[in-house]
Structure formats: structure tokens, C-alpha cells
Amino acid sequence: MRKIILAVNAGSSSVKVSIFAAEPDQFPVQLAEAQVSGLTSPPAKLKYLRNGEVIVNNRAAEEFSEEGGHKNVTDQNSAFNLILSVFLSDPDLPDLPSRDSISLVCHRIVHGGDYARPQLITDDTLHHLEDLADLAPLHNAPALEIVRWCIDELSPPAKNIACFDSQFHATIPEHIRTYAINPEVARKKGLRKYGFHGISYSFITRAVAEYLGKDRDKVNMIALHLGSGASACAIKAGKSWDTSMGLTPLAGLPGATRSGTLDPSLVFHYTSNVSRLSHLSTSHLHLTRAEAILNLDSGWKALTGTTDFGTITKNRDSNPSMRLAFDLFANRVANYIGSYYVALEGKVDALVFAGGIGERSAELRREIVKLVGCLGFEIDEERNEQIREEGVVVWDVGKEGENEKLKRVLVCRTDEQFEMVRMCMEEEGVW
Ligand SMILES: Nc1ncnc2c1ncn2[C@@H]1O[C@H](COP(=O)(O)OP(=O)(O)O)[C@@H](O)[C@H]1O
Ligand SMILES: CC(=O)OP(=O)(O)O
Ligand SMILES: [Mg+2]
């Protein structure tokens, strides 16, 4: 039986929602997709595509919320509500005449703890995921607010399924996921590397393997998901071998408002009383002052005053703090590429850029590839600048030709919503 499925991806600065029509044993077909971006750099913008055609191109979300009499778009839940109303009021989207036509909602939940498969959201799963909220302070709580709304407003008939960013990284070997701390405490409290952006890495692995004409379980790559949150992943034989995020999405690369990895002692020298609860804590989220500083008041926001990496890229030649942020990011990313190149013993099929920044900033790609040139990566200036149509998923931006040793440099337009639906369709019981 044909089902209409909604896939909801609540990121730290955006909400992306796609609608699919799905039949058992077939790939889901996307009907429409919308995103509200720039939640951390207002005004938030709305983009809407139906059947791959751009209907609304980055217009202020406010205009739509005013027209439709909705509350202002300030967070993930209001962004989700706006998107749903855009879908429901589109007369050219006959597959979604009303809320009742949605039979499944797939939710991206960044921290899934030890869950190694998507989960049907019951009261028990919901409570368990609420308990994990403090380990993904920018993500789990806003995503669960959307989940609770969907349970109240769409169920029944809709079932809600949680898909986890952390799931893809369940294959990271023990010596890599273990921190050098008291093992007893680590075990009792679940203190280990979990890793995130895994739904995206799962999509990238499939798409790149297909592009290269290789079996998924034979492909090795260094993948970079660079968005408001940024991470790197060493993918060995199609599986996650290592990734830069850790117990929480704070570790590793810096991001829009996140510091990334730094000396763990730094925070005690930054300010006093760091373990006191931040005023930003809520009934669903316990956030210490230390966590608030490192997750919300650091990164591009602290260094430059903006969280928009497009602005940083554009102004880096005239603005020294933006130049510093740009160079700092390229340096940190290049360090991971070097480290993962060694982890993969040099057997790397491709270096892959994805995420809002990775897919759009030709300048950052050029800079990073230049820094890792000694490993056999080289950018093709012309291909790197070329803008690709919406439907293109993977493209090559590396130099080709004479030098056999050159390694591929690819861009992958990642699609976490598609991947979630694909993952859910593999679950028994979904139909
Ligand atoms: N042309 C561009 N050049 C550089 N960065 C861009 C460009 N367009 C968008 N971005 C950045 O992409 C980031 C959003 O990425 P995305 O992966 O969609 O975010 P999220 O982490 O919320 O999922 C923002 O920091 C935004 O500034
Ligand atoms: C895990 C994470 O940081 O996700 P996002 O980049 O979507 O905020
Ligand atoms: Mg994202």
C-alpha cells in the first residue's frame, strides 16, 4: 500500500522537511521539500521545492508566518509548523490534502545513545530520548518538541519513528571510541564517543559508492559534513571507523556557535562557577554555564559576530576576524583529513564535501584541498566553481588526468530526509 511519509530533520540552525510517497520494496519518491534556514542568524529564510522545482527561494520566513497567521519563526518547532502549513496549503500538492494523509513521520534525533536501529516512538522511547537530551543540547530537546507536537496533532493515524545520527557510528572500534578515563565510571555513565551526522554519512556512503561504481562495503573515504555543526568521518569498507564528534556534538571541529575541541581545562579558566546551571536551562534540558559558553557562545559567532559562514567567506579579505575564522576552520579540517588518511592507510577512494558549507563554499573547498595537497588531492578550479542543478547528487571537483596518483575530490548533496525514510522502510513493522 502506498504511504505518505514526512521526514523531519531538525538541525542546530535549520529545519528541513521532505514528503515522500513510498511503496514497499521500492525507493521512496520525493514529492516536496522545504527548509527554514538561518535560525541562528535571523531573519530565518524559507525555501520550498515541489517535484524538484523551486517554488519559494529563500524568502523571509516571517512573510509566510504573517500571511498564514502563524507565530513568528524563532525556533525549530515554529519552523516545522510553518513548513507543514506551506505543504498543506499548496493546491498543487494533491497527495497531502490534509494532516490525516500522513501515515509515518520520521524524525532525526541526533543522540540515540546505544540504539542501533530506528525506533517506533512510544512513551518509553520518548522518555529515554528525553534522558539523553543533555548530551546533545542544541538538538535533542528541539527535535523532541516536534515529536511531541506530532504525537498530539498527527497520531493517529501517523506513527512516529526516531532515526539517530549516532547509529551509523556503532561500528567504531572500541580503542577509538573509548576515552582514557576510569573505565568503571565510563561504563556506568555511558561516557564514550558516539559520533553524529551519521544519517548524512550513511547517505553519502551509498551515493558516493554508486557514483564510483563500487560496492558500498568496499569503499573507503574521508567524508566532511560541514554545516552549522561540522564533523569529519573516516569511512572504511563502507562503515564508520572514526569520527570527530564525541560524547556530544561539541567535540571535534568548531561550528556556528560551538568551540569544537579545546583543552578541557580551558573552561575553568574562562570564567567562574562553570558547573552552575545556565539561565538557558529548561525543564527538558539541564545546561551548565560551561556547556552554554562552549555550545552557544563560541565558534563563528564568537570569533566574527555572525553564524553565517557565507558572510565569513565573502568578507574574509577585508575583515581580519573573518579571515581568522576561515583559516582556523580550514586548518582544523585539514588536520582531520591528515589523521584519517593515516587511519585508512592511504587507501582513500575520495575526499567528500557535504553539508551547507561543504556543498556551497567553493572557496573553503579550494583552501582545504590546497592544505592537504601533499596527500594527492588537487582541486579543479573550473569544476569547483560550477553550480550544479538541484537534482545532481554527487559531482567531481578534483583534477583529473595525467597524474594517476591523484585522488578524487567530490561534493555530495546530502539528503538526511531521504536516508531516514530509506532506513525506516527497512524496518519490519513499518508497513
Ligand atoms: N554559499 C555559502 N557559502 C558558505 N556557507 C554557506 C553558504 N550557504 C550557506 N552556508 C552555510 O551553511 C550553514 C548551514 O548548513 P546546514 O548543513 O544547512 O545547517 P544545519 O547544521 O542547521 O543542518 C550555515 O552556516 C550557512 O551560513
Ligand atoms: C550533529 C549536528 O551538529 O547537527 P547539525 O549540523 O545539523 O546542527
Ligand atoms: Mg544539519
UniProtKB/TrEMBL annotation:
Residues at which ATP binds: 16, 225-229
Necessary cofactors: Mg(2+)
InterPro entries xrefs: Ac/propionate_kinase, Aliphatic_acid_kin_short-chain, Aliphatic_acid_kinase_CS, ATPase_NBD
Catalytic activity: acetate + ATP = acetyl phosphate + ADP
Binding site for Mg(2+): 9, 416
Record site: Transition state stabilizer: 197, 258
Transmembrane region(s): none
Pathway(s): Metabolic intermediate biosynthesis; acetyl-CoA biosynthesis; acetyl-CoA from acetate: step 1/2
Signal peptide (from-to): none
Record keywords: ATP-binding, Kinase, Magnesium, Metal-binding, Nucleotide-binding, Transferase
SUPFAM superfamilies: Actin-like ATPase domain
UniProt GO molecular function: acetate kinase activity; ATP binding; magnesium ion binding
Pfam families: Acetate_kinase
Protein name, per record: Probable acetate kinase
